[in-house]
Task: structure prediction
Amino acid sequence: MSIRPLVILPDSKLRLVSKPIKEITSEIRQLADDMLETMYDAPGVGLAAIQIGVPVRMVTMDVSKSEDERQPMVLINPEILWASEEKRVYEEGCLSIPEYYEEVERPDRVRFRYMNLQGETIEQDADGLLATCVQHEIDHLNGVLFIDYLSKLKRDRVMTKFKKAARREAGV
Ligand code: ZN
Result:
């Protein structure tokens, strides 16, 4: 396992639409291991493969919030099957947009389907943090970021901040 560098805003890779995974190969298993290690190291509750620069539809999550009882999830080709009318507001952050948090409104409950690393198809209902997290991560697979749900003013402000930081990093 290894920790991989994170793709950070405004990197245009974050806007790619990731490709479905057709077969669970040893490379895919390796990628899942690396994603989990990178996510725990950050630390974060969710990570999409594109956030380490690999445009395939895989997500890792752990919303257990406890180092003693880790509950790692690996979701291959996840999709939302149903979303509640009721909404919920939650303060979201993103490992690709470090140290920026903002309230986002999303459906309160969802049903989603994915394949696990054993190739089994699983359907699951979620509420609370898991519901927020799975929607946030599936958005990544479609090139959507949580800042897309904010007002244009707020989004422009955060984009400007990260563009400036990237220029400083590049020394220009
Ligand atoms: Zn994110």
Summary: The beta strands are 46-48, 58-61, 73-83, 87-94, 97-107, 110-115, 121-126. Residues 12-170 form a domain with the Peptide Deformylase fold (CATH 3.90.45.10). Residues 42 and 102 are 19 Å apart (CA to CA). The mean pLDDT is 96.
